[in-house]
Amino acid sequence: MPLRKSWRWIGAFGPDTMLCVAHARVGVIRRSWWAVWDGTTLHEGTRAPFDLQVDHGEPIEVTTGPAFTRKTPLRVRGTVLGKDIDLPGLLDESHGRHARRTSWMWSAGAGRTVDGTPVVWNLVDGLHDGSPSERTVWLDGVPHEVGAVVFDGLDGVADLRFTASATRAKKENYLVLASDYEQPFGTFTGRLPTGETLAEGYGVMERHEALW
Predict the structure, then answer these.
(1) pTM value?
(2) What is the residue extent of each domain of the chain?
């Protein structure tokens, strides 16, 4: 039987600061990490040297077989590496017994449309692909499920184009467990799967291949 996995990931996205803070568990193995892009430098570590306060929006939940996820739009506030932040973001809470070999492409981000509507999105290929899916765009806080999306590697998804500013990447192989991922912070342009055009967009792309 596949091992039980769980993770909790918080991301916050803006023009001058982007960050993620996460904790994951696969069986008895635990990992924690954080990363901050301050507009110039990518800072990374294992124990976050800052506290965040989060306001939760309306979540979506999806269960596919033995795997569950909850995605929640956030407002993230705090002081990060000496800088005060007040940014939109996303909380990813997932757990279950995912397949022994799992791979996915993912994008999470936030910004505003050309008419000023605040937006947060969660787009994925490879996890919870059925119906209902976890693919969601929140327009002014209201979730809208969207159809299947095609990723152009790490260069974009659907009609969104992505320009990387800094990339987190790690490859680990413990024989029975392995992980190979890239997760760049950057900016988005183009049109959302719900049809609206972005005036500004910030967030992450991710490629992940896991043996767990």
Answers:
(1) 0.96
(2) 5-211
